[in-house]
Amino acid sequence: IGRLVIGQHGILSTPAVSCIIRKIKAAGGIILTASHSPGGPGGYFGVKFEVANGGPASDLASDKIYEISKTLEEYAICPDLRVDLSRLGRQEFDLENKFKPFRVEIVDSVDIYLGLLRNIFDFNVIRSLLTGPNQIKIRIDAMNGVMGPYVRRILCDELGAPANSAINCVPLEDFGGQPPDPNLTYATALLEAMRSGEYGFGAAFDADGDRYMILGQNGFFVNASDSLAIIAANLSCIPYFCQMGVRGFGRSMPTSTALDKVAKVMKVPLYETPAGWRYFCSLMDSGRCSLCGEESFGTG
């Protein structure tokens, strides 16, 4: 590998990694995250490998990586290599290998991901919902994971939600001592705020930003299966789907049949997959799936 692209401050959401891989036509991407598992010194140090389509490695790719790992005899490290993760732009190094120079590029991942979202959603309509005369008050909990910078930049700066709409937006190594799992057990600060009735919409994100929980007014809980079905039933409100059409829906096996009912009314094919995001990727790559989701609030 002769070139690395890294998010500023080392912070990237999993969807942003996918976005950047596709944008720059990278060979793949590595995400260091415990994902669903408890992270930290007493937990797990997770490694996700994303392939060139921006999705997780297939069983075939994972098996090949494993086989190669059994043949490794040595590795080299560069203890003196220092990369300034806060400085945007390209940095070059001489590692005395075949890549001269070895390039490291620090990018604003929030800005790149924001550009993608502008091509999917109607920002003017959302902005009017958050700032207009009939504005809805929202409450978004980043749970001290990587989503904080995205929530602040996109929902507050770009779409006009008040700054106090977003809470726990500073990424912390220990996530503030609370597991960054968006559910009723751990997103208690959001749940209490929503129960007050002051906010019309609430959401919490997990540590690496690929799962969410939605709460309605007075703390009304929208489960993962229903939130997926609601999005599917309202795809005509999203410009991307108006332009591209809807080819099919996908859901994981443990998810309820709420999406099936929507698919039947819309006359759209529905696919049930085993648990695991890579199965959705196969559907997407084959052109058969436009919207998919799993039992733990992952949606794409």
**What's the structural domain tally?**
3
**SSE sequence, one letter per element:** EHEEHEEHHEHEHEEEHHEHEHE
Helix content: 25-40%
The largest sheet is: 5 strands, mixed
List the uncertain runs: none
Morphology: globular
Total number of strands = 13
Mean of residue pLDDT? 92
Number of helices: 10
Write down the Rg: 20 Å
Considering the protein shown, what is the CATH homologous superfamily of the largest domain?
A: Alpha-D-Glucose-1,6-Bisphosphate, subunit A, domain 3
CATH topology of the largest domain: Alpha-D-Glucose-1,6-Bisphosphate, Chain A, domain 3
Level-1 CATH class name of the largest domain:
Alpha Beta
Provide the CATH architecture of the largest domain.
Answer: 3-Layer(aba) Sandwich
Specify the oligomeric state.
Answer: single chain
How would you classify the helix and strand content by structural class?
alpha/beta
Strand order of the largest sheet: 7-6-8-9-10
State the separation between the terminal residues, measured CA to CA: 29 Å
* Portion in strands: 15-25%
Q: How does the SSE layout of this entry go?
A:
Layout: E1 3-7, H1 14-24, E2 28-32, E3 47-51, H2 59-69, E4 89-93, E5 102-107, H3 109-118, H4 123-131, E6 138-141, H5 148-158, E7 166-167, H6 188-195, E8 201-205, E9 212-216, E10 220-222, H7 224-233, H8 239-244, E11 249-252, H9 258-266, E12 270-273, H10 277-285, E13 291-293
Parallel strand pairs: 1-5, 6-7, 6-8, 11-12, 11-13
Antiparallel strand pairs: 2-3, 4-5, 8-9, 9-10
Helix pairs in contact: 1-3, 7-9
